[in-house]
Amino acid sequence: MTGEQFTIIVLVTALLIDLAVRVIAIIVVPRNRRPSAAMAWLLAIFLIPYLGVLVFLLIGSYKLPKKRRDKQKAINEFIIETTHGIELVTDDRPWPTWLRSVVHLNRELGAMPLVGGNSASLIGDYAASIAAMTVAVDTAERFVHCEFYLIALDEVTAGFFDALERAVGRGVIVRVLVDHITAIRSPTHKATFKRLTAMGATWQFMLPVQPLKGKWQRPDLRNHRKLLVVDGIVGFMGSQNLVSRHYNKKSNIRRGLKWQDLMTRVEGPIVSGINAIFITDWYSETDELLSRETVELTDEIVNSAPDALDCQLVPSGPGFEGENNLRLFLALMYYAQKKIIITSPYFVPDDSMLYAITTAAQRGLDVQLFVSEIGDQAGVYHAQRSYYESLLKAGVTIWLYPAPYILHAKHFTIDAEVAVIGSSNMDIRSFNLDLEISLMVRGASFVDEMRSVEDGYRALSRRLTLEEWRRQPLRSTILDNLARLTSALQ
């Protein structure tokens, strides 16, 4: 065989492989995937075939391994069986005509019921929320369940770690879950885990990427939940991680960035639901089902006051068949009659969410969006900005929370009826790739408190106008649009 013949064979083989890759991609990539995401993946594979295929094989599947999904189904069935009839909700206060169908939707998706007899308060001060959680841990008699996307031992959280150690010393069982990839990227991770081990706490990585130990899934599937449960009586959840306000990152410290978060402290039957989420995640990671760590609902736990809150938890993530948080958010957006106020640090909606929000504004509703003036993640920040013009044209009011703060709170209110708070951003990552937890609350007192928080944001923020937006430089528009394209790779 001559060198020329060999070259021809190599070229023909390469062309055939390239053609086969493209044909297979057209068949495989769009299956059970959003059209926008499928187009983004196909574009990547067609423009850079070998690298595109490699990346797709690495992160193309946004589902957890089948074993974990089966565990989630088993837990859902257990929750439905054990929570039947505990709703405790009365019709003393008239329900909005649409609320019952949303409650049914949430129950079908995430298995958790709507339960009454709860009380809740909001904590918007960063140090105060950690202090409140520390105080709660110091009251523990049976167990402390602590689950956060990021837990770091530093000067801000040292008191919380001391409280955990005191609890262990009293004979309290302390269990800690922390996201693997996020945790090991923290500058203080070695000191953090050393301290937890030394105090006698039982801790476990969530969604560990440890192929040598047989633990593997798409590496950017993360557990983004933030919750704390003390004795099944007091619970905390929201947007804040257990870490210093600048996350101990040199780049954040250099820029002077400070995170602004919102947590809620809850009491009542809903705390058992938050604990059930922890039990689910603990079981998924350890195969240990904590059936004993449950609390009987007594008159002391159930708030019988006329203004008690009705609450429903909505867990979501790649362990579920559907996008539970997205479906909840969409339902509420379309049911809203007067006002929608959204706070989201990373606002990169899919088409359905963008349409729901802009349609609400075009229906004449007062629709407001709070976002940060600056960003801590360049790609997400520019992708978010690419949606501003469509929102402004539809009549959405955009408020820019001032630097050097990163408005990291995640919540929204619907009319005077319902508020939602939790760990979920309104972006494609939170809808598809991250495990999240959202709390839907019905109760005028809670909605009013949330509106006071929103008023505080508004007093500090400035309004972005369409005229100002159209004056942005061309280079910013190009960066925004490129970031928007890559955000669809899911």
UniProtKB/TrEMBL annotation:
<keyword id="KW-0812">Transmembrane</keyword>
<dbReference type="InterPro" id="IPR001736">
    <property type="entry name" value="PLipase_D/transphosphatidylase"/>
</dbReference>
<feature type="domain" description="PLD phosphodiesterase">
    <location>
        <begin position="403"/>
        <end position="430"/>
    </location>
</feature>
<feature type="transmembrane region" description="Helical">
    <location>
        <begin position="41"/>
        <end position="62"/>
    </location>
</feature>
<keyword id="KW-0443">Lipid metabolism</keyword>
<protein>
    <recommendedName>
        <fullName>Cardiolipin synthase</fullName>
        <ecNumber>2.7.8.-</ecNumber>
    </recommendedName>
</protein>
<dbReference type="GO" id="GO:0005886">
    <property type="term" value="C:plasma membrane"/>
</dbReference>
<dbReference type="InterPro" id="IPR022924">
    <property type="entry name" value="Cardiolipin_synthase"/>
</dbReference>
<dbReference type="Pfam" id="PF13091">
    <property type="entry name" value="PLDc_2"/>
</dbReference>
<keyword id="KW-0594">Phospholipid biosynthesis</keyword>
<keyword id="KW-0808">Transferase</keyword>
<dbReference type="InterPro" id="IPR027379">
    <property type="entry name" value="CLS_N"/>
</dbReference>
<dbReference type="Pfam" id="PF13396">
    <property type="entry name" value="PLDc_N"/>
</dbReference>
<keyword id="KW-0472">Membrane</keyword>
<keyword id="KW-1003">Cell membrane</keyword>
<keyword id="KW-1133">Transmembrane helix</keyword>
<dbReference type="GO" id="GO:0032049">
    <property type="term" value="P:cardiolipin biosynthetic process"/>
</dbReference>
<dbReference type="GO" id="GO:0008808">
    <property type="term" value="F:cardiolipin synthase activity"/>
</dbReference>
<keyword id="KW-0677">Repeat</keyword>
<keyword id="KW-1208">Phospholipid metabolism</keyword>
<feature type="domain" description="PLD phosphodiesterase">
    <location>
        <begin position="219"/>
        <end position="246"/>
    </location>
</feature>
<feature type="transmembrane region" description="Helical">
    <location>
        <begin position="6"/>
        <end position="29"/>
    </location>
</feature>
<keyword id="KW-0444">Lipid biosynthesis</keyword>
<dbReference type="InterPro" id="IPR025202">
    <property type="entry name" value="PLD-like_dom"/>
</dbReference>
